[in-house]
Amino acid sequence: MMAFTLLFDLDDTLLSNDIDRFLPVYLKLLGRHLADHVAPEKMVQELLAATQRMIRNNDPAITLEQAFDAAFYPAIGKTKEELRPTLESFYEQVFPDLQSVTSPRQAAPPLIQEALARGYTLVVATNPLFPRKAVEHRLRWAGLPPEETPFAAITSYETYHFAKPNPAFYAEILAQLGWPGQPAVVIGNSLEDDLLPAAHLNLPSYWVAEGKQALPPRMHPLSAQGGLEGVLPWLETLTESALARYDTPSPEGLIGILKSTPAALDTFARRLSESHWQQRPEPDEWSITEVLCHLRDVDMEINLPRVQKVAAGDNPFLPGINSDAWNEERRYCEQDGQTAFRAFIEARRYLVDCLENLAPEAWQLPARHAIFGPTYLQELVGFMATHDQSHIQQIVAAARQLGA
Question: Which residue, 10, 69, 335, 357, is most buried by CB atoms nearer than 10 A?
Fold first, then answer.
């Protein structure tokens, strides 16, 4: 039996929760709870504006929580520390009252338990616009208490940098998991937020929807539609050979992967101690600092110049470069990991900006690579994404070996 990583949406997928009904009640309760600090009308206005700021965030060094905080608290004239006790009491004591506007889906707990029994990796891939506590409450309402259900990851605004419908959201989940080798699929109810972004990364998806509806052509060709009870039978129809036929992400998906690398590294960096940066897990393996120096220099000296050269046209020749040799030549082991990481983020921002500003037809411009032979820009960016994935796997493996 093939193993899978299952990325489950939460609201109106594992839990019946109509956002058009839930949101007004949520805002009313929160406004009432904060009324001693800020007028409810002002609070709602600025909270919605700060939520839009999270949805638009494209900075891999800023979590969604940081994006929200920077927009919300100055706008209401309060500091986060001033409101922290009040907000904590809201999510502990008041938010649970919102269970009354939701209802559990009877098929969800058996589906999750059977998927776990099959050895699948399960992720709660809800739009990370809420604190972790709010997500955990909703999982309990769905009959899936997180303290009893071994999800590999639960997305929330504290540790994620991108929101739906950005394809980088799904790429960041997989990057934080260390880009597992098994196929990943998305299960959700929203075409725009769940399924079409997944298609950019060539992730098959299961559309949780009542009745028989035609699948849009932009969805992954192996996708399906139905109730939750149809998820596991659908997975049984997926084969390695069929999945291998559809393994090239779109330009938007490739950009999402490139964005996800510094975002996942930012999350890792916040958890690593100073000693972990410089330690080699084995004498002949790179330290995390060495990997970061490598990623920084490859972006600045190989990836960006190649994109610029191919985008300029004329089918350029791209010489092969042995960038692995730079590790010893440039004494990466003696450099500061935090400084290298900040420089990598800046280099990656510049590379992503360059790619996002390309005309659609530029992705098909040809080049001649010294090793790969005739190629084109989209394939070259695919090589960059694969390079990122291998080094994320390397860092995750190193961190585990070091006990981080």
Answer: 10
| Ranges assigned E (strand) in 315-389 | 317-318, 366-369, 373-376
400 band by pLDDT with thresholds 50, 70 and 90: confident
Which two tokens mark 69?
Answer: 């905080």
Q: Are 176 and 151 in contact (CB under 8 A)?
A: no
| Max CA separation in the chain (angstroms) | 67
**3-class state of residue 385 by DSSP:** helix
125 CB burial (10 A radius; 0-12, 13-18, 19+): buried
Q: How far apart are the first and last CA of the chain?
A: 32
Q: What is the pLDDT of residues 281-300, one digit of tens each?
A: 888 899 999 999 999 999 99
| 76, 46 Cβ separation under 8 angstroms | yes
From the number of C-beta atoms within 10 Å of its C-beta (0-12, 13-18, 19+), residue 272 rates as: middle
Residues 6+ apart with CB under 8 A from 213: 207, 225
Q: Do β-strands 5-8 and 184-188 pair in parallel, antiparallel, or remain unpaired?
A: parallel
Cα separation, 271 vs 176, whole angstroms:
12
pTM for the predicted model, two decimal places? 0.96
pLDDT single digits (tens) 148-166: 999 999 999 999 999 999 9
For residue 207, give the DSSP letter.
E
Q: What is the pLDDT of residues 17-61, one digit of tens each?
A: 999 999 999 999 999 999 999 999 999 999 999 999 999 999 999
Please name the residues in contact with 14: beta carbons below 8 A apart, sequence gap of 6 or more: 8, 105, 108, 112, 124, 139, 142, 144, 228
pLDDT digits (tens, 9 = 90+) for 318-375: 999 999 999 999 999 999 999 999 999 999 999 999 999 999 999 999 999 999 999 9
Residue-wise DSSP of 8-19: E--BTTTEE--H
Please state, rounded to an integer, the average pLDDT across all residues of the chain. Answer: 95
